[in-house]
Amino acid sequence: MEAPELTAPPVTESGKVAIFSTARRHREERGAARRRLRLSPDPSSHSLRRWRLVKRAPRSALLVAVLASYMALIFGCGMARNLTENRTRNTLIVIVVFGLCSFFYLLGAWQKSGSGGGDRIQNWVNEQTKCAQLPNLSFETHHSASNLPNDTGSSKIEPFKPCDEQYTDYTPCEEQKRAMTFPRDNMIYRERHCPPDKEKLYCLIPAPKGYVAPFRWPKGRDFVPYANVPHKSLTVEKAIQNWVHYEGNVFRFPGGGTQFPQGADKYIEQLASVIPIAEGKVRTALDTGCGVHGMYMMEVDRVLRPGGFWVLSGPPIGWKIHYKGWQRSKEDLRNEQRKIEHFAQLLCWKKVSEKDGIAIWTKRLNDKSCSMKQDNPNGGKCDLTSDSDVWYKKMEVCMTPLPEVNSVDEVAGGQLEPFPKRLYAIPPRITDGSVPGFSVESYEEDNNLWRKHVKAYKKINNLLDTGRYRNIMDMNAGLGSFAAALESPKVWVMNVIPTIANTSTLGVIYERGLIGMYHDWCEGFSTYPRTYDLIHSNDIFSLYQNKCQFEDILLEMDRILRPEGAIIIRDKVDVLVKVEKIANAMRWKTRLADHEGGPHVPEKILFAVKQYWTAEKTSS
User: Fold this and answer.
1) Spatial separation of the C-alpha atoms in residues 276 and 359, rounded to whole Å
2) Domains defined along the chain, listed by start
3) Could you say which protein family the record assigns here (predicted)?
């Protein structure tokens, strides 16, 4: 199309130049040209839609053409100004501003819509990884094996076969047959004993026949479907202790136990009369059965917070009344309690109560309030620099010193806020700078970041807030901000700190009122199969990609996740492509999604659901 001839614009009766007539004519001509281009058929397919989407000119060329038209408009108007004496300066300013605004608007739209070189790379990545909306990923419960898909996806990896039905309750590092081959001295056989690589099971642990989704909390606290744990031995062996009853097709837990003849609720009421449980000062509790050996009590002292409580119920407490029922002599029980009292004094614990078969001690606030006893036969203080280095370490016969304080009334390590205020208060370890790489500012930034992430998760999986997922795990918890963002009476989160993490942040997690533990994800996790409803992973596979096979980690995730449980994996896109191929071979239904920041962010999110199947469908 030839360029229009430039002529002087006409002059109105009032003497003003009709400067916009040329611009209007140009717009009409461009509009007609666009309509002709849009209506021209595709010579190969005669598809109007195909012509629009596929044969469209490059966006950069289109932008140049549009800009050229605007420049011609401005140039023409400029010539008109030279030919017209009554041209006002304000009109020129309007045209220039209009042209600049149009230019930057088109430039921004071009960059945002994405068809440049970088966007072609992004589109290729999205095509390879199938990043998209998640219309086909269902998080609902379907209790029937008939919902099992007929194939495991298009992955080239050979599908994993189900393990034999005998492995329904398999826990790799606490396997009973293996444990019984180790010495019983100091309960060594009860420690973790993981199988070597050649003995690992590279198959899928099946759920028992008839497995169904557990009852939602709080009903799930009192009732468990028999099909999920088809073992009646405890109902017989512990019948007189009121632990569990088999009723119809469920187990009912009435809240009794060996030391709770009146029920656990009554027991907790007794504790609350001495311990400020309801005030939010006591957030986490550890239930132990460690005997009377001083070394075990030293380990309790290590993990107990300054001012925390140690509760002992059962033998030998209350021996004067219960010695006959325990079938033990008075002298034996008396000596046992004397040993406990002696070690408690060596640890500078203060006994605050002994009543109705329950004894309670409180730990010292600091080391100034009680100097280490000189008559301690085990003597010595532990090395404070390695107090968190506990993975596969033997317990030492030493006392863990507390952080230094300025007065006998000061709480070593810092005073904690009551819960739930404690959850977002600045932890003392962050305030005093004892966690390398973290400051008050970075702590708050981490909280804000994970609030954003969790908000995005809830848009995709709208069941996160419904109580569907009670038991949740964060495989690489960091500061515990994912768990904090999820905080609700409906859920609890196990925060795991990998043993190979650059920085140990487990202390911060506990200071926030959360719970957690160390673990090496190249090994089996110390828990029963089908424990968790949802597993969250952040950069785990990047962290372990040179340590062990992805299959080792994913198979363990599958073992501890219940059927129809959910998985959220956040990592680099190249890592997630490999993970997704393996996951598809494990009967997981997966979808890869973009980062909340958009498709240009190299980090992606893999959402998955473990499909329902049981041993019933796998036995030959």
Assistant:
1) 15
2) 20-115 (no CATH), 145-168+419-617 (3.40.50.150), 212-282 (no CATH), 291-415 (no CATH)
3) Belongs to the methyltransferase superfamily.
